[in-house]
Amino acid sequence: MLKVGVLGAGHLGKIHLRLLEQSKKYELVGFYDQDTLNAEKVAEEFGYKLFASIDDLIDAVEVVDIVTPTLSHFECAKKAIKKGCHIFIEKPIAKTVLEAEAIRTLASQYHVKGQVGHVERFNPAFIAAKGMIDNPMFIETHRLAEFNPRGTDVPVVLDLMIHDIDIILSVVKSKVKNVHASGISVISDTPDIANARIEFENGCVANLTASRISMKNMRKSRFFQKDAYISVDLLEKKAEVVRMKDVPENPDEFAMILQNAEGVKKQIYFDNPEVENNNAILDELETFADAIINNTEPVVTLRNGTDALRVAQMVIDSF
C-alpha cells in the first residue's frame, strides 16, 4: 500500500480523505489544511491525523493528494515533488500555464509521477461510450450548474468548462487551430456563463457552453461523426449511440430508413451501451496508485492537465 497524505480538507478534500481511507491501495497517513479551525474540526469528527505543516505531511508520505484552492497548487506541488513524492493534483492543474509547465518539468527532473483530477474521464457514461467515438467532426457540450459560492474565485471556464475541454482533447486527435468565446459576469467578479467555439486543424469543431447560475443541473456531451451520433449524459450516467448503415436487401418492416435527395438510403440503428456504476473519484485515485506501482502512464497525465488549462486560457483570453 502507498502512504498518502491529503493537502486541503474542504468539501472535495473530505471526500478524498474518506475514499483514501477506504482504498485497499493506499494507507491514509493524514492531512493538512491551513484553515486551523476547519482542520481541527475534521480531525476531531473523522479521526484523521492532522499534521502541523505541509512539510511535516510531505515527509511522512509517498503520495501527496493536492485538493487545495487552485492558487496554491503550484507551491504545494513544488514542495511535494522536491521531496520525491508522487502528486495527484485536482483540476485545474495550476493557476497559469507557466506554473503547469513548471510542475511538469519538476516532475520529470525528480522522476515522480503526477495525475490531474479530471474526474469526468472516469465517468461511467463516458467510459461506456468512448470506445465508439471515432474521429468526431462536431461536438457540443452543455455543463450547467445551480449557483454555489464555492469555486467562484475563478472563471466558470476553469471551474466547469475545463472538464469538457479535457474530454474533447482526449478524443480529438488534432491540434487546436482557433478559439472564439464570450463570457458574462452575472453574480461573480469573473464570468459565470461562457460559450466557446474551438476549431481544430483536422476540421473538427467543438461548441461548449458552461453556466454556474442555472436553474437546473446538466452535463451533456454530443459527438457527431461519419455515420454515427453519440450522446453522453454525464449527470444521469447514460449513453446512446445512433448509427447509420446501408440498408440491407430485406430490411425489417419496422426499420427506420432515411433517403437523401440523391436516392441513397440509410438505416438507423439505436444502441444504449451498458453503463457500469462506479465511484469515479475512487477510480481516478486508484488508477494513479496502479500507475505508480506498475510504472505506467497515468490516465490523465500532467501534460493532459496542462493542455486542458492552455485551451481554457485561450477561451478566457478570447472574452
Automatic annotation (TrEMBL):
UniProt-listed InterPro entries: Gfo/Idh/MocA-like_OxRdtase_N, Gfo/Idh/MocA_Oxidoreductases, GFO_IDH_MocA-like_dom, NAD(P)-bd_dom_sf
Residue ranges annotated for the Gfo/Idh/MocA-like oxidoreductase N-terminal domain, each copy included: 2-118
GFO/IDH/MocA-like oxidoreductase domain ranges (all copies): 156-216
Origin superkingdom: Bacteria
Pfam hit, one: GFO_IDH_MocA
Molecular-function annotations in GO: nucleotide binding
PANTHER family: BILIVERDIN REDUCTASE A
Name of the featured protein: Oxidoreductase
Lineage: Bacteria, Pseudomonadati, Bacteroidota, Flavobacteriia, Flavobacteriales
